[in-house]
Protein backbone atom coordinates (compact mmCIF):
# COMPACT_ATOMS: atom_id res chain seq x y z
CA UNK A 1 0.00 0.00 0.00
CA UNK A 2 2.80 2.33 0.92
CA UNK A 3 4.64 1.54 -2.31
CA UNK A 4 1.52 2.09 -4.37
CA UNK A 5 1.47 5.72 -3.23
CA UNK A 6 4.57 6.41 -5.30
CA UNK A 7 3.36 4.82 -8.52
CA UNK A 8 2.00 8.06 -10.11
CA UNK A 9 5.38 9.69 -9.57
CA UNK A 10 7.19 6.71 -11.11
CA UNK A 11 4.88 6.84 -14.13
CA UNK A 12 5.44 10.61 -14.30
CA UNK A 13 9.22 10.11 -14.37
CA UNK A 14 8.96 7.41 -17.07
CA UNK A 15 6.79 9.64 -19.26
CA UNK A 16 9.04 12.66 -18.70
CA UNK A 17 12.13 10.67 -19.66
CA UNK A 18 10.31 9.54 -22.83
CA UNK A 19 9.34 13.19 -23.52
CA UNK A 20 12.94 14.35 -23.08
CA UNK A 21 14.02 11.46 -25.35
CA UNK A 22 11.71 12.72 -28.11
CA UNK A 23 12.86 16.30 -27.50
CA UNK A 24 16.56 15.51 -27.96
CA UNK A 25 16.10 13.22 -30.96
CA UNK A 26 18.09 14.33 -34.04
CA UNK A 27 16.06 16.49 -36.42
CA UNK A 28 16.27 13.82 -39.18
CA UNK A 29 14.71 11.22 -36.90
CA UNK A 30 11.92 13.62 -35.92
CA UNK A 31 11.18 14.35 -39.57
CA UNK A 32 11.23 10.62 -40.36
CA UNK A 33 8.70 9.95 -37.60
CA UNK A 34 6.56 12.85 -38.78
CA UNK A 35 6.65 11.53 -42.35
CA UNK A 36 5.68 8.02 -41.24
CA UNK A 37 2.88 9.38 -39.06
CA UNK A 38 1.56 11.59 -41.85
CA UNK A 39 1.89 9.06 -44.67
CA UNK A 40 0.73 5.93 -42.86
CA UNK A 41 -1.28 6.67 -39.73
CA UNK A 42 -2.88 9.95 -40.78
CA UNK A 43 -3.32 8.91 -44.42
CA UNK A 44 -7.11 8.27 -44.22
CA UNK A 45 -7.57 11.52 -42.30
CA UNK A 46 -5.55 13.58 -44.78
CA UNK A 47 -7.52 12.09 -47.66
CA UNK A 48 -10.89 12.85 -46.05
CA UNK A 49 -9.72 16.29 -44.94
CA UNK A 50 -8.46 17.22 -48.38
CA UNK A 51 -11.71 16.03 -50.04
CA UNK A 52 -13.69 18.03 -47.48
CA UNK A 53 -11.46 21.03 -48.00
CA UNK A 54 -11.64 20.81 -51.78
CA UNK A 55 -15.39 20.44 -51.74
CA UNK A 56 -15.96 23.60 -49.72
CA UNK A 57 -13.15 25.67 -51.14
CA UNK A 58 -13.44 24.79 -54.80
CA UNK A 59 -16.25 27.18 -55.62
CA UNK A 60 -14.62 30.09 -53.81
CA UNK A 61 -11.26 29.28 -55.35
CA UNK A 62 -12.83 29.08 -58.80
CA UNK A 63 -14.30 32.56 -58.47
CA UNK A 64 -11.01 33.94 -57.20
CA UNK A 65 -9.07 32.28 -60.01
CA UNK A 66 -11.43 33.66 -62.65
CA UNK A 67 -10.89 37.15 -61.27
CA UNK A 68 -7.16 36.49 -61.14
CA UNK A 69 -7.13 35.29 -64.78
CA UNK A 70 -8.80 38.51 -65.88
CA UNK A 71 -6.29 40.58 -63.93
CA UNK A 72 -3.37 38.51 -65.24
CA UNK A 73 -4.53 38.82 -68.85
CA UNK A 74 -4.50 42.55 -68.38
CA UNK A 75 -1.08 42.40 -66.71
CA UNK A 76 0.29 40.14 -69.50
CA UNK A 77 -0.81 42.69 -72.07
CA UNK A 78 1.08 45.38 -70.23
CA UNK A 79 4.11 43.11 -69.67
CA UNK A 80 4.39 42.31 -73.37
CA UNK A 81 4.53 46.02 -74.05
CA UNK A 82 7.21 46.45 -71.38
CA UNK A 83 9.16 43.44 -72.69
CA UNK A 84 9.25 44.85 -76.20
CA UNK A 85 10.35 48.19 -74.82
CA UNK A 86 12.90 46.49 -72.56
CA UNK A 87 14.40 44.47 -75.41
CA UNK A 88 14.72 47.58 -77.48
CA UNK A 89 16.44 49.44 -74.67
CA UNK A 90 18.75 46.47 -73.97
CA UNK A 91 19.77 46.33 -77.59
CA UNK A 92 20.54 50.01 -77.39
CA UNK A 93 22.69 49.50 -74.29
CA UNK A 94 24.15 46.14 -75.48
CA UNK A 95 23.00 44.31 -72.30
CA UNK A 96 23.14 40.49 -71.94
CA UNK A 97 20.05 38.52 -70.94
CA UNK A 98 20.16 37.31 -67.35
CA UNK A 99 17.71 34.53 -66.47
CA UNK A 100 16.48 34.58 -62.88
CA UNK A 101 15.97 30.82 -62.54
CA UNK A 102 16.83 27.46 -64.11
CA UNK A 103 13.74 25.49 -63.22
CA UNK A 104 10.62 25.60 -61.06
CA UNK A 105 9.93 22.38 -59.12
CA UNK A 106 6.44 21.54 -57.89
CA UNK A 107 6.31 20.09 -54.35
CA UNK A 108 3.68 18.95 -51.89
CA UNK A 109 3.92 19.54 -48.18
CA UNK A 110 4.61 16.30 -46.38
CA UNK A 111 1.94 15.49 -43.85
CA UNK A 112 -1.18 17.29 -43.00
CA UNK A 113 -2.40 20.75 -43.80
CA UNK A 114 -3.00 21.63 -40.17
CA UNK A 115 -1.88 24.63 -38.22
CA UNK A 116 1.64 25.05 -39.58
CA UNK A 117 1.86 28.58 -38.23
CA UNK A 118 2.72 27.21 -34.82
CA UNK A 119 5.95 25.76 -36.08
CA UNK A 120 7.48 28.33 -38.43
CA UNK A 121 8.46 25.78 -41.05
CA UNK A 122 7.10 23.00 -43.20
CA UNK A 123 8.44 19.92 -44.89
CA UNK A 124 8.08 19.26 -48.62
CA UNK A 125 8.35 16.03 -50.58
CA UNK A 126 11.27 17.10 -52.78
CA UNK A 127 14.92 16.86 -51.76
CA UNK A 128 18.47 16.42 -53.06
CA UNK A 129 17.30 13.79 -55.55
CA UNK A 130 15.11 16.42 -57.22
CA UNK A 131 17.80 19.08 -57.43
CA UNK A 132 16.80 20.94 -54.28
CA UNK A 133 19.55 22.79 -52.40
CA UNK A 134 19.66 25.02 -49.35
CA UNK A 135 18.66 28.67 -49.71
CA UNK A 136 16.33 28.18 -52.66
CA UNK A 137 13.16 30.31 -52.67
CA UNK A 138 9.77 28.66 -52.15
CA UNK A 139 6.57 30.26 -53.44
CA UNK A 140 2.96 29.35 -54.09
CA UNK A 141 0.58 30.84 -56.63
CA UNK A 142 -0.15 33.73 -54.27
CA UNK A 143 3.35 34.82 -53.30
CA UNK A 144 6.50 34.07 -51.34
CA UNK A 145 6.29 31.27 -48.77
CA UNK A 146 9.87 30.89 -47.53
CA UNK A 147 13.22 29.34 -48.33
CA UNK A 148 14.85 25.92 -48.09
CA UNK A 149 16.94 25.60 -44.94
CA UNK A 150 17.64 21.88 -44.80
CA UNK A 151 17.79 19.26 -47.54
CA UNK A 152 17.52 15.47 -47.32
CA UNK A 153 17.43 12.95 -50.14
CA UNK A 154 13.66 12.90 -50.57
CA UNK A 155 12.45 15.81 -48.43
CA UNK A 156 13.41 19.34 -47.50
CA UNK A 157 12.60 21.75 -44.70
CA UNK A 158 11.19 25.15 -45.67
CA UNK A 159 11.63 28.07 -43.30
CA UNK A 160 8.48 30.16 -43.68
CA UNK A 161 8.84 33.92 -43.94
CA UNK A 162 6.58 33.90 -40.86
CA UNK A 163 9.32 32.28 -38.79
CA UNK A 164 10.59 34.50 -36.02
CA UNK A 165 14.16 34.05 -37.31
CA UNK A 166 13.32 34.92 -40.91
CA UNK A 167 14.39 38.27 -42.44
CA UNK A 168 13.46 39.13 -46.02
CA UNK A 169 14.77 42.08 -47.97
CA UNK A 170 11.87 43.68 -49.85
CA UNK A 171 11.13 46.69 -51.98
CA UNK A 172 7.99 48.76 -52.53
CA UNK A 173 7.08 48.15 -56.18
CA UNK A 174 5.78 51.71 -56.64
CA UNK A 175 8.13 53.92 -54.64
CA UNK A 176 11.21 51.57 -54.73
CA UNK A 177 11.69 52.01 -50.96
CA UNK A 178 13.66 49.12 -49.45
CA UNK A 179 12.93 47.47 -46.08
CA UNK A 180 13.39 44.23 -44.16
CA UNK A 181 10.27 42.13 -43.60
CA UNK A 182 9.90 40.37 -40.24
CA UNK A 183 6.96 38.63 -38.60
CA UNK A 184 6.35 38.58 -34.87
CA UNK A 185 5.28 35.35 -33.12
CA UNK A 186 5.04 33.43 -36.45
CA UNK A 187 1.83 35.38 -36.95
CA UNK A 188 0.81 36.42 -40.51
CA UNK A 189 -1.18 39.30 -39.01
CA UNK A 190 1.97 40.71 -37.42
CA UNK A 191 4.28 41.35 -40.36
CA UNK A 192 6.30 44.57 -40.39
CA UNK A 193 8.62 46.15 -42.93
CA UNK A 194 11.47 47.42 -40.80
CA UNK A 195 14.19 50.04 -41.30
CA UNK A 196 11.95 52.26 -43.45
CA UNK A 197 12.79 55.95 -42.96
CA UNK A 198 9.98 58.13 -41.64
CA UNK A 199 10.15 60.28 -44.75
CA UNK A 200 9.71 57.27 -47.10
CA UNK A 201 6.88 57.09 -49.61
CA UNK A 202 4.70 54.19 -48.37
CA UNK A 203 0.96 54.07 -48.99
CA UNK A 204 -1.73 51.63 -48.01
CA UNK A 205 -2.19 49.06 -50.78
CA UNK A 206 1.35 49.38 -52.18
CA UNK A 207 2.71 46.05 -53.38
CA UNK A 208 5.80 44.74 -51.62
CA UNK A 209 8.09 42.51 -53.70
CA UNK A 210 11.43 40.76 -53.15
CA UNK A 211 14.46 42.95 -53.76
CA UNK A 212 17.14 40.27 -54.44
CA UNK A 213 19.44 42.11 -52.02
CA UNK A 214 19.64 39.05 -49.76
CA UNK A 215 20.71 36.92 -52.72
CA UNK A 216 18.13 34.18 -52.09
CA UNK A 217 14.95 35.46 -53.73
CA UNK A 218 14.98 36.77 -57.30
CA UNK A 219 13.72 40.31 -57.65
CA UNK A 220 10.01 40.84 -58.21
CA UNK A 221 8.26 38.02 -56.32
CA UNK A 222 5.13 39.29 -54.61
CA UNK A 223 5.46 39.21 -50.81
CA UNK A 224 2.46 41.24 -49.65
CA UNK A 225 0.78 44.61 -49.56
CA UNK A 226 1.09 47.58 -47.23
CA UNK A 227 -1.80 47.37 -44.80
CA UNK A 228 -1.07 50.28 -42.51
CA UNK A 229 1.58 52.91 -41.96
CA UNK A 230 2.15 55.19 -39.02
CA UNK A 231 4.90 57.32 -37.55
CA UNK A 232 7.22 55.14 -35.50
CA UNK A 233 10.11 56.68 -33.62
CA UNK A 234 11.98 59.82 -34.70
CA UNK A 235 13.75 58.14 -37.59
CA UNK A 236 11.72 55.17 -38.74
CA UNK A 237 8.19 54.45 -39.90
CA UNK A 238 5.98 51.53 -38.79
CA UNK A 239 4.83 49.68 -41.90
CA UNK A 240 2.43 46.78 -41.38
CA UNK A 241 2.37 44.20 -44.17
CA UNK A 242 -0.40 41.82 -45.18
CA UNK A 243 1.34 38.76 -46.69
CA UNK A 244 0.19 37.72 -50.17
CA UNK A 245 0.28 34.00 -49.40
CA UNK A 246 -2.39 32.34 -47.26
CA UNK A 247 -0.28 30.28 -44.86
CA UNK A 248 -3.18 28.10 -43.76
CA UNK A 249 -3.31 26.60 -47.27
CA UNK A 250 0.20 25.65 -48.29
CA UNK A 251 -0.38 22.09 -49.46
CA UNK A 252 1.25 22.77 -52.82
CA UNK A 253 4.31 24.95 -53.34
CA UNK A 254 6.99 25.62 -55.94
CA UNK A 255 10.76 25.70 -55.43
CA UNK A 256 12.67 28.05 -57.69
CA UNK A 257 15.98 26.46 -58.69
CA UNK A 258 18.42 29.24 -59.52
CA UNK B 1 -13.96 0.09 -16.62
CA UNK B 2 -12.04 -0.78 -19.78
CA UNK B 3 -14.91 0.48 -21.93
CA UNK B 4 -14.68 3.87 -20.24
CA UNK B 5 -10.98 4.11 -21.09
CA UNK B 6 -11.56 3.10 -24.70
CA UNK B 7 -14.23 5.80 -24.95
CA UNK B 8 -11.77 8.36 -23.54
CA UNK B 9 -9.11 7.39 -26.10
CA UNK B 10 -11.64 7.70 -28.93
CA UNK B 11 -12.66 11.09 -27.53
CA UNK B 12 -9.01 12.18 -27.43
CA UNK B 13 -8.57 11.22 -31.10
CA UNK B 14 -11.73 13.14 -32.03
CA UNK B 15 -10.51 16.21 -30.11
CA UNK B 16 -7.06 15.88 -31.73
CA UNK B 17 -8.53 15.82 -35.25
CA UNK B 18 -10.89 18.69 -34.43
CA UNK B 19 -7.97 20.75 -33.16
CA UNK B 20 -5.92 19.89 -36.22
CA UNK B 21 -8.61 20.62 -38.78
CA UNK B 22 -10.95 23.28 -37.53
CA UNK B 23 -9.20 25.31 -34.85
CA UNK B 24 -8.08 27.96 -37.35
CA UNK B 25 -11.72 28.45 -38.40
CA UNK B 26 -12.67 29.75 -34.96
CA UNK B 27 -9.58 31.92 -34.59
CA UNK B 28 -10.31 35.48 -33.40
CA UNK B 29 -7.58 38.09 -33.81
CA UNK B 30 -4.90 35.40 -33.70
CA UNK B 31 -6.31 33.79 -30.54
CA UNK B 32 -7.20 30.09 -30.68
CA UNK B 33 -8.69 27.81 -28.02
CA UNK B 34 -6.75 24.68 -26.99
CA UNK B 35 -9.24 21.82 -27.07
CA UNK B 36 -6.68 19.19 -26.06
CA UNK B 37 -5.91 21.02 -22.81
CA UNK B 38 -9.65 21.16 -22.07
CA UNK B 39 -9.90 17.41 -22.65
CA UNK B 40 -6.89 16.72 -20.42
CA UNK B 41 -8.29 18.84 -17.57
CA UNK B 42 -11.58 16.98 -17.83
CA UNK B 43 -9.78 13.60 -17.85
CA UNK B 44 -7.60 14.55 -14.88
CA UNK B 45 -10.72 15.64 -12.97
CA UNK B 46 -12.68 12.50 -13.78
CA UNK B 47 -10.14 9.66 -14.02
CA UNK B 48 -7.27 8.29 -11.95
CA UNK B 49 -3.86 9.99 -12.29
CA UNK B 50 -2.28 7.03 -14.13
CA UNK B 51 -4.83 7.15 -16.90
CA UNK B 52 -4.86 10.97 -16.99
CA UNK B 53 -1.06 11.05 -17.35
CA UNK B 54 -1.23 8.39 -20.05
CA UNK B 55 -3.73 10.56 -21.92
CA UNK B 56 -1.34 13.50 -21.46
CA UNK B 57 1.50 11.40 -22.89
CA UNK B 58 -0.57 10.19 -25.84
CA UNK B 59 -1.87 13.65 -26.71
CA UNK B 60 1.65 15.10 -26.44
CA UNK B 61 2.96 12.36 -28.70
CA UNK B 62 0.25 12.98 -31.32
CA UNK B 63 0.92 16.74 -31.31
CA UNK B 64 4.67 16.12 -31.53
CA UNK B 65 4.21 13.85 -34.55
CA UNK B 66 2.42 16.66 -36.36
CA UNK B 67 5.03 19.31 -35.54
CA UNK B 68 8.48 17.69 -35.55
CA UNK B 69 10.13 20.93 -34.37
CA UNK B 70 8.35 20.70 -31.05
CA UNK B 71 8.39 16.91 -30.68
CA UNK B 72 8.79 16.01 -27.01
CA UNK B 73 7.84 19.40 -25.58
CA UNK B 74 4.13 18.63 -25.77
CA UNK B 75 4.73 15.26 -24.06
CA UNK B 76 6.58 16.95 -21.18
CA UNK B 77 4.03 19.74 -20.90
CA UNK B 78 0.90 17.58 -21.09
CA UNK B 79 2.17 14.84 -18.74
CA UNK B 80 3.20 17.43 -16.11
CA UNK B 81 -0.12 19.20 -16.58
CA UNK B 82 -2.25 16.11 -16.02
CA UNK B 83 -0.11 15.11 -13.04
CA UNK B 84 -0.49 18.54 -11.41
CA UNK B 85 -4.25 18.67 -12.05
CA UNK B 86 -4.69 15.12 -10.71
CA UNK B 87 -2.70 15.98 -7.58
CA UNK B 88 -4.41 19.26 -6.76
CA UNK B 89 -8.11 18.76 -7.48
CA UNK B 90 -8.82 16.20 -4.70
CA UNK B 91 -10.62 18.43 -2.21
CA UNK B 92 -12.20 20.84 -4.66
CA UNK B 93 -15.73 20.98 -5.96
CA UNK B 94 -14.98 20.25 -9.62
CA UNK B 95 -18.40 21.33 -10.92
CA UNK B 96 -17.86 24.84 -9.59
CA UNK B 97 -17.45 27.33 -12.44
CA UNK B 98 -14.72 29.29 -10.66
CA UNK B 99 -12.68 26.13 -10.08
CA UNK B 100 -12.97 25.19 -13.77
CA UNK B 101 -12.03 28.72 -14.88
CA UNK B 102 -8.97 28.79 -12.63
CA UNK B 103 -7.81 25.35 -13.78
CA UNK B 104 -8.19 26.16 -17.49
CA UNK B 105 -6.39 29.50 -17.16
CA UNK B 106 -3.59 27.98 -15.05
CA UNK B 107 -3.22 25.01 -17.43
CA UNK B 108 -2.94 27.29 -20.48
CA UNK B 109 -0.36 29.48 -18.77
CA UNK B 110 1.57 26.43 -17.54
CA UNK B 111 1.64 24.99 -21.09
CA UNK B 112 2.96 28.31 -22.44
CA UNK B 113 5.55 28.41 -19.67
CA UNK B 114 6.91 24.99 -20.62
CA UNK B 115 7.05 26.01 -24.29
CA UNK B 116 8.68 29.31 -23.31
CA UNK B 117 11.40 27.48 -21.43
CA UNK B 118 12.04 24.79 -24.03
CA UNK B 119 11.24 26.39 -27.37
CA UNK B 120 10.01 29.94 -27.93
CA UNK B 121 11.74 32.06 -25.36
CA UNK B 122 9.35 33.86 -23.04
CA UNK B 123 5.97 34.04 -24.77
CA UNK B 124 2.72 33.78 -22.84
CA UNK B 125 -0.36 33.78 -25.06
CA UNK B 126 -2.87 35.47 -22.79
CA UNK B 127 -5.50 35.82 -25.52
CA UNK B 128 -5.40 32.07 -26.17
CA UNK B 129 -5.83 31.45 -22.43
CA UNK B 130 -8.76 33.87 -22.22
CA UNK B 131 -10.42 32.39 -25.31
CA UNK B 132 -9.98 28.84 -23.99
CA UNK B 133 -11.44 29.84 -20.62
CA UNK B 134 -14.47 31.46 -22.26
CA UNK B 135 -15.38 28.53 -24.48
CA UNK B 136 -13.84 25.83 -22.27
CA UNK B 137 -15.83 26.38 -19.10
CA UNK B 138 -19.22 25.57 -20.68
CA UNK B 139 -17.63 22.72 -22.68
CA UNK B 140 -16.28 21.04 -19.52
CA UNK B 141 -19.62 21.52 -17.77
CA UNK B 142 -21.37 20.04 -20.79
CA UNK B 143 -18.97 17.07 -20.78
CA UNK B 144 -19.78 16.47 -17.10
CA UNK B 145 -23.45 16.48 -18.01
CA UNK B 146 -23.10 14.22 -21.06
CA UNK B 147 -20.64 11.67 -19.66
CA UNK B 148 -21.73 11.56 -16.02
CA UNK B 149 -24.45 8.99 -16.55
CA UNK B 150 -22.63 6.91 -19.14
CA UNK B 151 -19.44 6.78 -17.01
CA UNK B 152 -21.47 5.84 -13.97
CA UNK B 153 -23.32 3.11 -15.86
CA UNK B 154 -20.04 1.63 -17.12
CA UNK B 155 -18.50 1.76 -13.63
CA UNK B 156 -21.57 0.11 -12.06
CA UNK B 157 -21.32 -2.91 -14.38
Radius of gyration of chain A: 23 Å
Q: How would you describe the shape of chain B?
A: globular
Biggest sheet of chain A: strands, sense, closure? 6 strands, antiparallel
Distance between the termini of chain A: 69 Å
What about the largest sheet of chain B?
Answer: none
**Binned strand content of chain B:** under 5%
Number of helices of chain A: 3
Name the helicity range of chain B.
over 70%
What is the H-and-E element order of chain B? HHHHHH
Q: How would you state the average pLDDT of chain A, rounded?
A: 81
Distance from N terminus to C terminus of chain B (CA atoms, Å) equals 8 Å
How many helices of chain B in DSSP terms? 6
Tell me the greatest interface.
A-B, 38 and 35 residues
Number of strands of chain A: 12
β-strand amount of chain A = 25-35%
Q: What are the defining features of this structure?
A:
heterodimer, A: 258 residues, alpha+beta, 6-stranded antiparallel β-sheet, 6-stranded antiparallel β-barrel, 3 helices, 12 strands, B: 157 residues, mainly alpha, 6 helices, 0% strand
What does this structure look like?
The complex is a heterodimer of chains A (258) and B (157). With 258 residues, chain A is an alpha+beta fold. Helices cover 32% and strands 26% of the residues of chain A. In chain A, the strands form 2 sheets. In chain A, strands 1-12-3-4-5-2 form a 6-stranded antiparallel beta sheet, with no helix packed on it. A 6-stranded antiparallel beta barrel of chain A has the order 6-7-8-11-10-9. In chain A, helix 2 crosses helix 3. Chain A is globular and about 85 Å long. In chain B, helix 1 packs antiparallel against helix 2 (35-46) and helix 3 (49-66) runs antiparallel to helix 4. Chain B has helices spanning 2-22, 35-46, 49-66, 73-88, 97-120, 126-156. The chains are: A alpha+beta (258), B mainly alpha (157). Chains A and B meet through helix 1 and helix 2 of A and helix 1, helix 3 and helix 4 of B.
